[in-house]
Amino acid sequence: MIKKAIAVIFFLAPCLLAQSKIAVLDYSISIQSSTEQKLLLDFLKREKEFIPEVISTKEILDRKFSVQNYHLLWIHRPDSSEFTEKEKDPKLILKLIKYVTDGGTLFLTLDAMKYLNLLNLEISKPTVKYVNAIDRGYGRKLGLHAFRDHPIFDGMHGGVYLFNPTTDLRTRQIGFFEESIPLNGKVVARCS
Question: Residues 38, 31: contact at Cβ < 8 Å?
């Protein structure tokens, strides 16, 4: 039975214990060259609760990768192209399934959500939509709001704004929207 699969960035802190060891998957060992991923790693390093370690798919395949070694595996995929053969490697998929089945927390952000289907955690496929972040007098905030008062939002007044650009723009979102709902997962938030 699959215990946890998380696909929204701010769920990180509530799901982990103090001094949680986090594996951040880097497919090409180039996190430091990606501004977005470097900021992610810098954030984790600043927080005393987390012990981040950048790992490669080779390390997942070649050494003992398990729940005992990492509380959470974070896969961040800003690329909207199709998954590469390396990302779909059956051996990698089996290792990830075992990790989650053994109780590991899988944290998927942006297009890494597509792993939900590759790992057979979800039958429905996430969809993409584009939304406008336009200042109509109260800022350009986009975020998530609790669906049926989920406890993960306790202390957040029912939601959180994750994105507040300084100029009007159109942005891409990936997830389950309107008629597209997860069949195996549970909806805990809706986009705003």
Answer: yes
